[in-house]
Automatic annotation (TrEMBL):
Keywords: ATP-binding, Chemotaxis, Kinase, Nucleotide-binding, Phosphoprotein, Transferase, Two-component regulatory system. GO terms for molecular function: ATP binding; phosphorelay sensor kinase activity. This is Chemotaxis protein CheA. Residues 1-103 form the HPt domain.
Length: 680
């Protein structure tokens, strides 16, 4: 029987069952006497085991079986719950998630789980698990895995991809990257390296695997295999630009010499006594379920659609938007009433279609938020702190392209709140606070944006310490420091490498990694701001666009060229006289409602050829980046319209202050201005 047709269903349902396990384990930890919660976890584990065995993923089925045995003894009151036991079960769930992700990415789902299997077997025998943290167990497993698998091993799928890439003229490289010994937040630097590599080609594999890199379960070195058209020198130069990268060694791959047959590694997990291969992909009845009252479930009115089909649909619709603009232009030129009416009707229909297509791509932020409760729980254990994470607005939806990018910045901010925001229980009691700290993660819509707040009731930010550090690092002068508002002082912690920590921490650092957060969010067309009160807590507010593919812009003319400025960045437009322009610190400025506003002449920035004389008055677009404002000087305003954002590709990635391009109704290409780059 060919199981490939069920693969997508298996992957999605496996993720759902593992999410249920994670959520219910967190609930059980707070309510250990409620054994009905254990039944819920057991059912999900039992179903996952049956599905895995049916699909032929033996390692996945075997580990789930080990976890199921422990859960069965817990619900039968044969094993007492303890923090150490929860640590082990959470680690098992982490490994299961990594195995499912491996399958989803085309792998075989194999993973070295000797450490957690040994712990589960000890618990099953009634022995206490080894007193060690999840990080230590994972690190031990990583060492075992490193000993048993070298970075040069590739399965059949990976080898085929490399071979096909070679046939199409791509180079295949194995890149060894070394980080500095004093690198404080290794995961942040790994993220930046991957970002560089993915712009240059396609990453095929990493060693250690991505999930271990994200958890910083590696020494200072890691290896990445990629295919690209670029040379060894170009790749080396780009990676070395990432801060705290100490060494880069790029080797071309000999594909024939590296080819390994799939399934060549021995099974690393002990076989289970019996294999339940009669479990289908839908849950089967068992004794536990028969004891419960039957529950009538409503028929599903949803279907699963491959994301590639949605991407194709989006691309086709983007072409339709371009043609709609072209028809508008033709209609205006011909001035035909019937054509006007037809185009208006078509515009209304395509607007409705646009809403539907965009809504189809919208994904609840809970897909990102779901992993945070488990992460916060483990960090609290590692830091000896008590923290309650509250999540609001998880149903808020964002475009999939934004969802894919926002996870890592949120991880950094939550780690930052845990490590430097929330105090230890002893410190909180001394301050008259509840010994359990609180972190609120909230998402909500407002206009065409989504806002995400991370609020903690911890120590807040010490303004004096931030200022003193900025002065000692030469970031500020005393004169400039005296003019800064509180929010401007707080924003200094986003400077690259800036940190006020008195002791080095491997969890986070205010400044170490926060520069990555700011850059990532701004690359998505968003912004991040901070508000804080010392000894009361901090709030990080992230503003993001709903979608990145179709945006509203103000079209402007600069001499004979047309440019688009995103409406999300625009405050208003204005006409000013040349006589109103003043000079301050070698910068042309104007008085904008009592505020000094710098002027940026786009014709000079983009070196536009001059074809006509300037007039006595100037057209200015007032734009914003956080609390900072600037005036962009253009020649004229053309009007507002919706455009399709197109990437400039790999050849024009270095174009200054340009985020993309669009095709207008008359066939011209207009460049889209990145206001965040222009405002400092």
């Amino acid at each position: 029987m060919d199981m490939n047709q069920y693969l997508e269903v298996f992957i999605e349902e496996s993720k759902e069952h593992l999410q249920t396990c994670s959520e219910q384990l967190l609930v059980l930890e707070k309510n250990p006497e409620d054994l009905s919660i254990v039944n819920e976890i057991f059912r999900s584990a039992h179903t996952l085991k049956g599905m895995s065995a049916t699909m032929g993923y033996e390692d996945l089925a075997n580990l789930t079986h080990k976890m199921e045995n422990v859960l069965d003894e817990i619900r039968n009151s044969q094993i007492a719950l303890s923090p150490e036991l929860f640590d082990v079960i959470f680690l098992a769930v982490d490994d299961l998630e990594a195995m499912v992700m491996s399958i989803a990415e085309g792998g075989d789902g194999k993973r070295n789980v000797k450490g957690v299997v040994h712990q589960l077997e000890m618990i099953e025998k009634g022995e206490s698990p080894i007193s060690s943290t999840i990080a230590e167990i994972a690190a031990a497993s990583a060492v075992l895995e490193k000993e048993e698998m070298t970075a040069g091993e590739y399965d059949e799928f990976e080898w085929t991809v490399l071979q096909q890439s070679k046939d199409q003229g791509f180079n295949s490289y194995e890149i060894s990257i070394g980080l500095r010994e004093d690198c404080l937040l290794k995961a942040a630097r790994v993220f930046m390296v991957f970002e560089v590599l993915e712009k240059s080609g396609e990453v095929i594999k990493s060693h250690p695997p991505v999930e271990l890199l994200e958890e910083e379960q590696f020494d200072q070195q890691f290896t990445v295999t990629m295919v690209t058209t670029e040379s060894v020198e170009e790749i080396t130069k780009k990676i070395m630009k990432v801060s705290e990268v100490d060494q880069v060694v790029v080797n071309a791959l000999d594909l024939e010499g590296l080819r390994h047959a799939p399934n060549s590694k021995e099974d690393k997990v002990a076989e289970i006594p019996e294999q339940e291969t009669n479990n289908a992909l839908i849950p089967t009845d068992n004794d536990d379920r028969k004891k419960q009252a039957p529950v009538k479930t409503p028929s599903s009115k949803t279907i699963r659609v491959n994301i590639e089909r949605l991407d194709i649909l989006m691309n086709l619709f983007e072409e339709l938007v371009i043609d709609r603009g072209r028809l508008d232009q033709i209609s205006s030129d011909l001035d035909n009433q019937e054509l006007h009416e037809t185009v208006e009707r078509m515009s209304r229909i395509t607007s409705d279609l646009q809403t539907i297509v965009l809504n189809m791509r919208m994904v609840p932020v809970e897909t990102v938020f779901n992993r945070f409760p488990k992460m916060v729980r483990q960090l609290a254990r590692d830091l000896n702190k008590k923290v309650n994470l509250e999540i609001n607005g998880a149903e808020t939806e964002l475009d999939r392209t934004v969802i894919d990018e926002i996870g890592d910045p949120l991880v950094h901010l939550l780690r930052n709140a845990m490590d430097h925001g929330i105090e230890t229980p002893e410190e909180r009691l001394e301050k008259g606070k509840n010994e359990e700290g609180k972190i609120l993660l909230k998402a909500y819509h407002s206009g065409n944006h989504v806002f995400i707040e991370i609020e903690d009731d911890g120590a807040g930010i010490n303004k004096d310490r931030v200022l003193n550090k900025a002065l000692s690092n030469g970031i500020l002068t005393k004169e400039t420091a005296a003019t800064l508002t509180d929010k401007q002082i707080y924003e200094l912690i986003f400077a690259s490498g800036f940190s006020t920590a008195e002791t080095i921490s491997d969890v986070s650092g205010r400044g170490v990694g926060l520069d990555v957060v700011k850059n990532t969010i701004e690359s998505l067309g968003g912004s991040v701001t901070i508000d804080s009160k010392e000894n009361e807590g901090s709030i990080f507010l992230i503003q993001l666009p709903l979608t990145l593919s179709i945006i509203s812009v103000m079209l402007v003319a600069i001499q004979n060229e047309k440019y688009a400025i995103p409406l999300s960045s625009i405050i208003e437009t204005a006409i000013i006289k040349k006589a109103d322009i003043m000079n301050a610190h070698n910068q042309q400025v104007i008085d904008f409602r009592g505020r000094v506003l710098p002027l940026l002449f786009l014709k000079d920035i983009f070196e536009v050829p001059i074809s006509q004389e300037e007039e006595e008055s100037l057209s200015v677009v007032i734009v914003r980046k956080g609390d900072k404002l600037a005036g962009l000087v253009v020649d004229s305003f053309i009007g507002q319209l919706e455009i399709v954002l197109k990437s400039l590709g790999n050849y024009l990635t270095s174009a200054f202050a340009i985020s993309g391009a669009t095709i207008l109704g008359d066939g011209q290409v207009a460049l889209i201005i990145d206001c965040n780059t222009l405002i400092h």
